[in-house]
Design brief:
heterodimer; A: mainly alpha; MetI-like fold; flat; B: 342 residues; alpha/beta; Rossmann fold; 2 domains; eight-stranded mixed sheet; 24% strand
Chain lengths: 364, 342
């Protein structure tokens, strides 16, 4: 009798969809993934409505442009007719209809076509600009991270020395200057006043006319063109890494296990890497993973300053031209990147810090 | 020949307001297989002295004078003169230290096995299999299951287990000297007991010398052969355990003993010492215990009394009133101090 009841209970547990969903929800990874999708959906929806709230629709901008280029020979009505014909989406349709068709297309992984260069898919536009941004901002970020934690560690070890003062003062100074100001100062001093760098020749991601490919000439050219943006990304971020690493190292150095490691006669090198460095860098790895998410958004102003064809520059031009699908595509891409980076940061952290991932392990 | 002979050691903390004299002119000898307990209140300089013995004092600390003479196989060296490499070798291989905060003595992000291996490699044991065998043997010695403990991370072990692991790790290189800085303070009473029993067993089997720092007199009495009482950075009394317990001659030692509750005694027999330890930056003139001392006379405040032999040559106290203390306590040697004064 009792066994029969128990068996029945078990069957019910296995079948109950609410119980099943509840169990899934309790699984941390499943929960994180559901949250990620929710975030992306909310951001995308907000973007959709917000950009339509911006004054000036793409049709109006196009009408203005047509009238101006025709030197008044085109009437407003004619221009309007031509302009409306250029757009694949009916912008006069009710907002909810536009939204539903946008979501429907999105579910088919179709981001639509650009309004302005008709026939060009948003996906291919993004794919054309994304590598440049990933390359320039990513390199800047990685270099600043590596050099920054190195200098931060060194400064903490030589606390109150001249090197520490120079490095930490320099770090806090440079991290408080916005990147576009550094860019403008570089142009002003290195380009305009001293003519050390030929800025006009460095504009763009590579010299036009050069055949893209894995040739030394092309790679050299890419590096030449990217060098200034990379330098600026490097300079604007290194201060943060230096200061964070310095303070993390200082507190790690105070830990009992570092004193104990010294008492155990471990070599200074081993203590620096496995005991001080490894513990100090833990929180920074999470920050790095999150920063990686922001790479994708690029640095619009820097890319504009150097006419570097990255995501940020493309986003700026899409905004000024009210190219809705492109704006939406890029904002969504950035959102996804940030969300994924956050997820990765969580997973990475639990891998690096045994106290997180193995909670509830062997014993209390 | 003592294993360790400390001569006139003084350690200052350098602060903005001036030097803090944390350890003042400390001397003692530690024989082979002997256990020395150092007792005193918080802030009496016990821990500063202990870390000073392996030259691990924190930043801003300065050894102003003295010698730390370490003898191995008839060869005596002053630890203060060791260069970096020799010092690294001396630490753990000759003098291992079990810390007050054993709970935080392990690197949280690497496994216990890695920390054994790190220690072994730092002292030239490169063969992982031999290190593994040694770790198994040591953990067995402290009654832990090596298979379970070695792959674990520190946070997966309980406080008592961590303390045992640290003791095992301390014995890895068969040091002549093990310094234990309040090794049982953070543990519950049952775990304390098992750690003390363990230390007794290990000492008998392996014959190392121990310096045991504690404010818990009952534990100190159980383990120690000789005892030192420290007050305001100075040694105020040195004696073997029996003399210290039954015939203390420094009023501070008497006070410490009276502060220990006893199972047999009435509750009223427990008394704390009124007042608090002096500011180590501005020590009072004369005996630094005089302001709290019930037996102090004007003479006590004139000059800091030196350590002088009392009763026997191996029993020393820094008190000019020691005869008076002896009179107050009476001649009955078998009755514990607390009951005599109750």
């Amino acid at each position: 009798m009792t066994t029969a009841v128990a068996a029945k209970d078990q069957v019910r547990t296995a079948m109950d969809p609410r119980r099943y969903l509840g169990d899934t929800w309790r699984h941390p990874v499943a929960r994180a993934v559901v949250k990620a999708f929710l975030t992306i959906w909310v951001t995308t929806t907000l973007t959709f409505f917000l950009i339509r709230l911006m004054p000036g629709s793409p049709v109006e901008l196009k009408i203005d442009e047509l009238i101006q280029t025709s030197n008044g020979s085109l009437s407003y009505e004619d221009a309007k007719a031509i302009a409306s014909g250029l757009f694949a989406i009916n912008l006069n349709a009710p907002l909810y209809e536009q939204y539903l068709s946008f979501i429907w297309n999105l579910l088919h992984l179709d981001l639509g076509n650009s309004f302005l260069s008709s026939g060009t898919g948003v996906t291919s536009i993004i794919l054309a600009v994304l590598p440049w941004t990933l390359f320039s901002v990513g390199t800047g970020l990685l270099l600043s991270f590596i050099v920054g934690i190195g200098l931060g560690l060194l400064a903490a070890y030589r606390r109150d020395s001249l090197l520490d003062r120079v490095v930490s003062t320099g770090g806090s100074l440079i991290s408080s200057i916005p990147n576009y100001l550094i860019a403008l100062m570089m142009i002003l001093f290195l380009g305009v006043q001293t003519h050390l760098i030929n800025f006009t020749g460095m504009r763009g991601a590579y010299t036009s006319g050069l055949q893209p490919g894995f040739t030394p000439a092309f790679i050299g050219d890419i590096l030449y063109h990217a060098s200034l943006p990379i330098t600026i990304y490097f300079l604007t971020q290194i201060g943060h890494w230096i200061l964070s690493m310095r303070s993390a190292t200082l507190s790690a150095l105070e830990e009992d296990y570092v004193t104990a490691a010294r008492a155990r006669g471990l070599s200074d090198g081993r203590i620096r890497t496995a005991y001080v460095g490894r513990n100090a860098v833990l929180p920074l790895v999470t920050q790095l993973a999150i920063s990686v998410g922001f790479i994708v958004g690029g640095a619009a102003i820097i890319e504009q300053t150097f006419a570097y064809q990255g995501v940020g520059l493309r986003l700026l031009s899409a905004v000024t031209q009210r190219d809705y699908p492109v704006i939406q595509g890029i904002v969504m891409l950035t959102t996804i990147a940030v969300v994924v980076a956050n997820l990765a940061a969580d997973l990475l952290y639990s891998k690096l810090d045994p106290r997180i991932g193995r909670a509830g392990g062997a014993a209390g | 020949m003592p294993v360790l002979s400390v001569r006139g050691l003084s350690i200052d903390y350098i602060t903005r307001k001036g030097p803090v004299h944390a350890v003042r002119d400390v001397s003692f000898d530690l024989e082979k297989s002997e256990t020395l307990a150092i007792i005193g209140e918080s802030g009496s300089g016990k821990t500063t002295l202990a870390v000073g013995l392996i030259r691990l004092s924190p930043r801003g600390t300065k050894v102003t004078s003295g010698e730390i003479l370490y003898t191995k196989k008839g060869l005596t060296t002053d630890v203060r003169t060791l260069d970096d490499d020799d010092l690294r070798e001396y630490r753990w291989a000759e003098a291992a230290m079990v810390f007050q905060a054993a709970l935080n003595s392990f690197n949280p992000v690497i496994s216990i096995w890695e920390q054994f291996n790190d220690t072994a490699r730092a002292h030239g044991m490169k063969d992982r299999r031999r290190v593994r065998d040694r770790a198994d043997e040591l953990l067995d010695l402290v009654h832990l299951d090596a298979k379970r403990v070695l792959p674990a991370f520190p946070h997966e072990l309980s406080g008592g287990m961590k303390q045992r692991v640290l003791i095992a790790l301390a014995l890895m290189l068969e040091p002549q000297l093990v310094i234990l800085d309040e090794p049982t303070t953070a543990l519950d009473i049952l775990t304390q007991r098992s750690i003390i029993d363990l230390l007794k067993q290990l000492r008998e089997r392996l014959g190392f010398s121990m310096i045991f720092i504690s404010h818990d007199l009952s534990i100190a009495a159980e383990l120690a052969d000789r005892m030192i009482t420290m007050y305001a950075g100075r040694v105020v009394e040195e004696a073997n355990v029996e003399d210290m317990f039954y015939r203390p001659r420094h009023p501070y030692s008497v006070g410490l003993l009276r502060a220990v509750p006893r199972v047999s005694g009435a509750l009223g027999s427990v008394a704390s010492i009124p007042g608090s330890p002096p500011d180590l930056m501005r020590l009072p003139k004369g005996c630094s215990y005089a302001p709290r001392c019930p037996y102090a006379i004007d003479e006590c405040r004139a000059a800091d009394p030196p350590l002088i032999p009392v009763d026997t040559p191996r029993h020393q106290a820094a008190c000019i009133r020691w005869k008076h203390v002896a009179e107050v306590l009476g001649s009955n040697a078998e009755v514990p101090v607390a009951e005599k004064l109750a």
